[in-house]
Specification:
The protein has 6 helices and 2 strands. It has 259 residues and is mainly alpha-helical. A two-stranded antiparallel ribbon has the order 1-2.
């Protein structure tokens, strides 16, 4: 083992201060123990990150599955996407837990950031896809209701002529808003459908961010269209002095909302 001299005192020799040294053996660094400690920290840190990612994805999927006015097809698509990502994360966690070399574990830990980028895309992308699906479903229901309101207006022979014309204009506006909502829904969906995780590419990240923003903003316009169409419905019902139940007994008492 190596030795080194350690200064332990100053001794006076012939009126001069002289250092006194002793030899001591140095304790060698235990590299294996050091590497094992680093590996343990990586595993603990990685497990926590993966657990958080899985929890976020699970919560997102549960929220989507609980929404009544989302189609079964859209729910199934979200579930498949989420379950695939969770399975991949679980596989990565198993690999990291089994790592015996901290240098390999470091590489595996870095892979978690790729899944983080996937999650950062899947959740907002999924929200837009689900919102588009909801808008379409609501618009289809409003289209059916519009036909029934048209029948009510056609039969409203006692309604004053001017008032009747105003109600017909309301119905025309309602139909226009429904059509625009469907168009905006499709456009919002088109912004995000083909997006892929950026994998650390800043250009792709910026492009995804811009597309997600455009998709959200377009869906917001579609939601506004639905709100305006509902205002038209309220005005028509009030003008005819009837309730929504008189037009459609099965119409929900609470208007569905878009996430």
């Amino acid at each position: 083992m190596s030795t080194k001299n350690i200064l332990i005192a100053l001794t006076i020799v012939g009126g001069t201060f002289m250092p006194v040294f002793v030899n001591a053996q140095s304790t060698p660094l235990n590299k294996d123990a050091f590497d094992a400690a680093k590996l343990s920290k990586i595993v603990i840190r990685s497990d926590a990150a993966i657990t958080t990612d899985i929890a976020n994805l699970t919560a997102f999927n549960a929220k989507i599955q609980a929404i009544n006015d989302v189609s079964d097809a859209e729910k199934a698509a979200i579930t498949t996407k989420v379950q695939t990502t969770i399975a991949e994360l679980t596989t990565l966690k198993t690999k990291i837990d089994a790592d015996t070399d901290f240098t390999i574990a470091i590489v595996d830990e870095r892979a978690i950031s790729d899944f983080y980028r996937v999650n950062e895309l899947i959740i907002p992308q999924g929200n837009i896809e689900v919102s588009a699906d909801q808008v379409n479903g609501i618009a289809d229901s409003l289209t059916v209701l519009s036909g029934k309101l048209q029948t009510e207006l056609d039969q409203a022979t006692t309604t004053p002529v001017n008032k009747h014309k105003d109600l017909l204009k309301r119905l025309e506006d309602m139909n226009a808003k429904i059509a625009d909502a469907k168009a905006k829904s499709a456009a919002g969906l088109a912004f995000v459908t083909s997006l892929l995780p950026d994998q650390g590419n800043v250009t792709v990240l910026d492009s995804n961010t811009a597309a997600l923003k455009s998709g959200r903003n377009t869906i917001k316009v579609a939601v506004k269209d639905i709100q305006f169409a509902r205002e038209d419905i309220t005005a028509i019902l009030k003008g005819l002095k009837i309730s929504i139940g008189d037009v459609d007994p099965n119409w929900p008492t609470v208007n569905p909302s878009v996430i």
